[in-house]
Amino acid sequence: MAMRSIFLSFLLAIVASAASRAAEPQTADPVLAEASGLAGLVMFVNSGAPGMVLVIVRGGRSLVLGYGETEKGNKRTPDDNSLFRLNSITKVFATEVLVSLAAEGKLSLTDPLQRYAGKTKVPAFGTRPITLLDLATYSAALPREMRDAPEGVFSRAWPTREDRWKWLPGYKLPWAPGTVASYSNAGFDFLADAIETAGGQAYPDLLRKRVTAPLGMADTGFAPTPEQCARLMTGSGLGGPGPCVDTHATDGSGGLYSTGNDMALWLRHNIEDADGTLALSHAIYRQRQALPAAIGFDEAGPMAGLGLGWVSVAAQGIHPALMAKSGGGAGFMSYIAFAPGRNVGIFVAVSRVDFGMFSGLTETANALIANLVTR
After folding, report:
1. With contact defined as beta carbons under 8 Å apart, do 45 and 19 qualify?
2. Contact 49, 69 (CB under 8 A)
3. What single DSSP character describes residue 209?
4. Domain range spanning residue 247?
5. What are the C-alpha distances in Å from 373 to residues 94, 335, 366?
6. Is residue 332 part of a domain?
7. pLDDT tens digits, one per residue of 263-320
8. Could you tell me the pLDDT band of residue 29, with boundaries at 50, 70 and 90?
9. 58 found inside a domain
């Protein structure tokens, strides 16, 4: 018992020194504080990252915690305004813009991509075209990437719109769209291009007008200012940290920057879905059991189905059903998940790319949600 007390005291001391409670939108929730203590520490220590930002939302309250350092050795703990890369969580921002346009009748999910391609010929599989729904559910029969970025070009700043539309007509679809689900970054950049055409504005402007500005997400975007770049945590691991540059080229797939404060706002927005529009992106359009294959979706638990960008994880034991999305690359790994109808969600970003450690990170995050959802 004495050894256990010493161990617990040691852990609490580490928590006190590694975690910094940031400004909260509402009065602190003592349940959130208690639930996050050991779980947050476990996520941070096991990640091996220089720094981590953790966001937990429960009902109308949220908590933002920072761990470690914004750059290894600088002794500055991340806070709610520290900037990081969202990577592939960018995709579920794109689908929110998509459903907002669909709700206004400016596009239909069943529209063929060809409708938004101008004179460029979009490949089809026989008579089956690629639709916007196929793109948004990873089932457009497009590859994960067009190819690797050219040497010396930052991966999040390539390919440009011109590059990808020049490439597309020469690509042969390996199977019919809407059948096999296979993870694709390329597909979401084409989706953002179609959204841009349907909305009649540059995609970053549509995202700002329809999502980030109304929610007050001032630090979420593709072209950080020098002041924002000064707040960017330094990434590490596979691919290196990456420069703080405009990433509009991958605005559908992985280019977004954000902060803990902004992600607390957006996570609560998804949980509450005040006007019901987000139900369109959270709905399941591709059931795993109805697919001949599902490739690249199980890093946060077995995928049960696919929403628009979102991955559905089925309830199991004490763990509730989740809508989740992960991201990785350019120095950061990130994960967001919430329990539909339970008013609980989590977001975490670590400044280290290591796919081997990521399953442990998401497992602990999912367990934290289960601790807060008991009915």
Report:
1. no
2. no
3. I
4. 83-372
5. 28, 19, 11
6. yes
7. 999 999 999 998 899 999 999 999 999 999 999 999 889 999 999 999 999 999 999 9
8. confident
9. no
